[in-house]
User: Which sequence fits this backbone?
């Protein structure tokens, strides 16, 4: 018997860092959707059992154990997803993948490379994308939190 031959496959992957981060965020969202479907299935299972066997005490104990085990597994997955999300957000903040907006400065009428000190034309950071897990600790250094800190003082 001979060994199988594997063809020389060299796929070209043309993903940049920003697209990769978006794919990671999408994978987290899809995992969250999957977990929500599991929770919904457990709820339907429990409702069906209560409808079919309303007086089965031993059945209640068995189904309670089953639902409890599934919920524990979902919570473990949620914790891992939270870690994954925090890591991806950190990558996103470090990689300058925020969409750049070119504002037309009202003061100097420049659209890009404005040299004035006006906040709206100097800061291309889209603050709606800011997720700051360290905000409570007050040590986040993203532009959104920096501006909020300046208003706090």
Assistant:
């Amino acid at each position: 018997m001979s060994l199988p031959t594997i063809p020389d496959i060299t796929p070209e992957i043309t993903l940049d860092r920003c697209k990769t981060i978006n794919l990671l965020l999408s994978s987290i969202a899809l995992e969250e959707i999957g977990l929500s479907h599991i929770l919904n299935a457990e709820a339907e299972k429990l409702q069906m059992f209560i409808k079919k066997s309303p007086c089965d005490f031993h059945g209640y104990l068995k189904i309670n154990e089953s639902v409890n085990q599934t919920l524990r597994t979902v919570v473990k997955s949620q914790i891992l997803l939270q870690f994954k999300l925090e890591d991806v957000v950190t990558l996103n903040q470090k990689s300058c993948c925020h969409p750049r907006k070119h504002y037309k400065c009202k003061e100097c009428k420049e659209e890009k490379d404005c040299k004035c000190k006006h906040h709206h034309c100097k800061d291309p950071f889209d603050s709606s994308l800011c997720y700051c897990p360290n905000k409570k600790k007050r040590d986040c250094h993203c532009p959104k939190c920096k501006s909020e800190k300046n208003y706090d003082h």
